[in-house]
Amino acid sequence: MKKALLILVCINFSIMPINSQESDTFQTSLGELIITPILHGSFVIQLNDITIYVDPYGVGQNYSSFSNPNMILITDIHGDHFSQKTLDAIDTSKSEFIVPQAVKEKLLSEKKITVLNNGQGVHREGIFIEAIPMYNLPEDETSRHPKGRGNGYLLTVGDKNIYISGDTEDIPEMRMLRSIDIAFICMNLPYTMDINQAASAVLEFKPKIVYPYHYRGKDGLSNVEKFKKLVTTENNLIEVKLKNWYPQD
To answer: Please, which residues have CB within 8 angstroms of residue 3's CB and are 6 or more apart in sequence?
Structure first.
C-alpha cells in the first residue's frame, strides 16, 4: 500500500506544472488584471475570462494551469519569442495571433492571424493593442533587431496602460512613452541593452511599475537588483517588481 502511494505521489509530482510563479493582481476599470511570469520574456495576462499569452516559450507544461489563450502576442522571429515547439504543445485552436509580418510568414497558414506593423493597432475583447517599434542601436546592417521587423506592444486595458518592450534598446520611442502603468523592460547584452540603459530610459518615461524581464544574456543573468537600485534611488515613486523569470536556475 505504501509503495502504491509513493508511486502515486511521484506520478502526481511529475505532471505538476513547472511554472509555480506568483501572480500579481491589478484593479482596472474592466476588472481584475492578473499577470503571471512564465519564462524569460514570456508571461500570461488574464482579464475576467480573457487569457493572453505573450511570447509563449518553454515547455507546454508551463501553461497547463491556465485557460487556453484567446490571444497570443508575439514580438519577434527569434526562438525565445516565436517558439513553434511551444505553440505545438499548447491548444491554440481558438487563439488569435497578433504578430508582426515577419512572424506571420513563419506561422501555419490555418491560424487566425492579425498582422500589426509598427504604429498600427486593433481593439480586441475591450483591449486596445498597439504595435510600437523595438530595435537595436545603432540602426545598421549588423543589428540583431532591425527597426520595423518586430513589435513592442502597448496595451490599453480600461484605465491601465501596459508596455511590453520586446527586444530593444533604449530607443527614442520608449523614452517618449507617457502614462504607463506597467512596463516590461528587457535588459540582456549583447542582444538588447544593459541595466544602465534600461534604468535611464525608465527614469525618463516614468512608468508606475516596472518588471525587469528577458534578462538572460550571453554571460548569464543581468543584475536586476542593481537595476532596481538605479531606478528607485533616483525616483522612489517607481515600483520595481523583481520576479524569478528563470525558475530552473
So the answer is: none
Cβ-defined contacts of 110-117 (< 8 Å, 24+): 116/151, 117/148, 117/151
Inter-CA distances, 235 with 54, 168, 199, 207, 222, Å: 28, 23, 11, 11, 21
Phi and psi (nearest 5°) for 27? -90, 130
Q: What are the residues whose beta carbons fall under 8 Å from the beta carbon of 208, sequence distance 6 or more? A: 180, 181, 182, 237, 238, 239
Q: What was the pLDDT predicted at 139?
A: 74
> What are the tens digits of pLDDT across the range 94-129?
999 999 999 999 997 677 999 999 999 999 999 999
Give me the sign of the Cα torsion angle 112, 116, 122, 127: positive
pLDDT tens figures, 42-52: 999 999 999 99
Contact 118, 131 (CB under 8 A): yes
Mean pLDDT of 21-40: 96
Q: Kindly state the cell numbers that stand for 62.
A: 508551463
Residue pair 109/97 in contact (Cβ under 8 Å)? The answer is no
Q: Is 99 helix (H, G, I), strand (E, B) or coil?
A: strand
Q: What is the mean pLDDT of residues 134-163?
A: 91
* Rounded Cα distance, 159 and 184, in Å: 18
Q: What is the arithmetic mean of pLDDT over 8-24?
A: 49
Running DSSP on this structure, what letter comes out for residue 188? -
What's the CA gap between 216 and 239, in Å, rounded? 21
Asked if residues 193 and 170 have their Cβ atoms less than 8 Å apart, the reply is yes
